[in-house]
Specification:
InterPro entries: TrpB-like_PALP (IPR001926), TrpB-like_PALP_sf (IPR036052). This protein has helices at about 5-15, 30-35, 55-60, 65-70, 80-90, 105-115, 125-140, 150-155, 160-170, 180-195, 210-215, 240-250, 255-270, 275-290, 290-295, and strands at about 25, 40-45, 75, 95-100, 120, 145, 175, 200-205, 250-255, 295-300. It is an alpha/beta fold and about 325 residues long. α5 links the parallel β3 (about 75) and β4.
Length: about 325
């Protein structure tokens, strides 16, 4: 199994530089004071299509040969990868065929439509997604771009950490959410390529802890009907992302549902960051493990912000 290298991440960074948004890194004086450290938030919720996924999708799309591009691209996704791939495809002037479950969040369906993606809905099961996608690919000849189990997608995701470190300098820890593992994999390669001593930590909900169990058991564990507010982290690791994570990642923390909500509130209240639940998970991990991160320089990738805040009733809660 071939892993991306640090040079592959650098190549991806150069390839997508004309297309991606150079999102800011911000600090919050209040959050730093509350948690007794320095937290640097890489604001990928401000990325095009509203999430880091645009980086990986763009790299994958612009790695296609001319012949491949004429066939268009296809994927199955309930959220951010769908919109990201549709947007990236539009930038190259090619078609994007997106298979989405009927239960996909409306805000994410609308994002795909706005980006010009051709949506085919399916039942909300992995089996249905794969079967419908297979038919779409057969009918259109489109190239399948997996949301995370893809060499070029992983390379693109790693560029967020490169950009963050340019702004922050040396860090003690870098945290990302982990679902399928594309962001954590790419981040780990990028961070270790610059600062080998920096610890890379994955974070996920207790209610969807398959990556954590896989990491500490050494055997890939598949989730069984996980239930969490962090809907973007319901997918399981692939053999490729698991292999990279085992090699490069230092720890994986899990967090409670209440902590995810509290992290969303803290980010919005004290940093002006409207983070979707999945992207608030790293913040929740820091809040649950304050002593571990105390006095440290910590980079946090805010992975996405595609939510309808009116959907949640806890913004004024006192956690």
């Amino acid at each position: 199994m071939i892993h991306p290298t640090f040079q592959d991440i650098l190549n991806a960074h150069e390839r997508i530089r004309p297309y991606v948004r150079q999102t800011v890194v911000i600090e919050s004086t209040i959050i730093n004071r509350l948690l007794h450290g320095r937290l640097f938030f890489k604001c990928e919720h401000q990325q095009k299509a509203g999430a880091f996924k645009f980086r990986g999708a763009t790299n994958a799309v612009f790695c296609l040969s001319q012949e491949e591009s004429l066939r268009g691209v296809a994927t199955h996704s309930s959220g951010n990868h769908a919109a990201a791939l549709a947007y990236a495809a539009a930038m190259r002037g090619i078609k994007a065929h997106i298979v989405m479950p009927e239960t996909a969040p409306l805000v994410k369906v609308e994002n795909v439509k706005e980006m010009g993606g051709h949506i085919t809905f399916c039942e909300p099961t992995l089996k249905a997604r794969e079967e419908v996608l297979s038919k779409v690919v057969k009918d259109t000849g489109a190239v399948f771009i997996h949301p995370y189990d893809d060499f070029n997608v992983i390379c693109g995701q790693g560029t967020a950490a490169l950009d963050m470190i340019k702004d922050t300098g040396e860090l003690d820890y870098v945290l990302t959410p982990v679902g399928g593992g594309g962001l954590l994999s790419g981040t780990s390669i990028a961070v270790k390529g610059i600062y080998p001593a920096c610890k890379v930590i994955g974070t996920e909900p207790e209610n969807a802890d398959d990556a954590c169990r896989s990491f500490y058991s050494g055997t890939l564990v598949r989730p069984v009907n996980p239930q969490t507010i962090a809907d973007g982290l319901l997918t399981s690791l692939s053999e490729l992302t698991f292999s990279i994570i085992k090699q490069n990642v230092d720890e994986i923390f899990t967090v409670s549902e209440m902590s995810i909500k509290a992290a969303m509130v803290m980010l919005r209240k004290h940093a002006g960051i409207l983070a979707e639940p999945s992207s608030a998970v790293p913040m929740a991990a820091i809040m649950e493990n304050r002593e571990f991160f105390e006095g440290k320089r910590v980079g946090v990738i805010i992975s996405g912000g595609n939510i309808d805040p009116g959907k949640y009733d806890f913004w004024d809660a006192d956690y």
